[in-house]
Write a sequence for this structure.
């Protein structure tokens, strides 16, 4: 069964500092990877996704993620965070040979301090 | 498009009462998902539909939970009888078929359920 591990449940960081949110998935031949963001009292919305091609994926709000097949990772990064980036971030994976339904990680709470 | 619409946004009820949560997916989407989010268990997939047909309900916690999708624009999640441990935020999401596994899920704002 597919699985996703988000290694950090909470990441505190100061405003304008860089941040990396880690995501690892269980290995498979072909994967599709997603990062979603959930702002307080809202539903999840897509930040970015990797389907194929370039391993560096750029998303909304200045976020980017890098697909690393050898390390089965898809870490999310932002060079300089803002207070407004405070939110819950979810990594998700689906497999081309599976049910096509994504599996979500437990989420990482990003807390940006002024 | 207005996005995925859920109602009510907040529901407070007493143990033993029936609760019905409603969802209107994005027009043209043929997949619909119901999720439950709690601090303890994170985001759990309860059930999903494809073309109004339930495909996998293995995430439904017990027989007290049931879901229906009578047409492409409406779905309900019902809890009868409700219990305090059902307190959570329930999300509905929809997506379109496209290439399998590649599709973005669009989430509604959620229904915050409190069972006293």
């Amino acid at each position: 069964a597919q699985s996703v591990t988000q290694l950090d449940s909470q990441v505190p960081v100061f405003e304008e500092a860089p941040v990396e949110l880690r995501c690892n998935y269980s290995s498979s031949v072909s994967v599709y990877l997603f990062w979603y963001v959930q702002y307080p009292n809202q539903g999840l919305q897509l930040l970015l996704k990797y389907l194929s091609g370039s391993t560096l994926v750029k998303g909304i709000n200045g976020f980017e993620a890098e697909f690393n097949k050898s390390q089965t990772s898809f870490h999310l990064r932002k060079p300089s965070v803002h207070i407004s980036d405070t939110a819950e971030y979810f990594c998700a994976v689906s497999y081309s040979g599976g049910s096509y339904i994504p599996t979500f990680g437990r989420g990482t709470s990003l807390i940006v301090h002024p | 498009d207005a996005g995925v619409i859920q109602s009510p946004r907040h529901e407070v009820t007493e143990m033993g009462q029936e609760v019905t949560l409603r969802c209107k997916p994005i027009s043209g989407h043929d997949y619909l998902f119901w999720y439950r989010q709690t601090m303890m268990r994170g985001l759990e997939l309860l059930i999903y539909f494809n073309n109004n047909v339930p495909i996998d309900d293995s995430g439904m916690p017990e027989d007290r939970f049931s879901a229906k999708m009578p047409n492409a624009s409406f779905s309900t999640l019902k809890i009868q009888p409700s219990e305090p441990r059902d307190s959570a935020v329930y999300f509905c999401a929809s997506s379109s078929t496209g290439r399998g596994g590649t599709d973005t899920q669009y989430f509604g704002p959620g229904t915050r359920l409190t069972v006293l």
Notes: Chain B is about 0% helix and 55% strand. The first strand of chain B starts at residue 5 and ends at 7. Chain B has a mean pLDDT of 93. The interface with chain A takes residues 4, 33, 42-43, 45, 48, 56, 91, 93, 99-110 of chain B (CB under 8 Å).
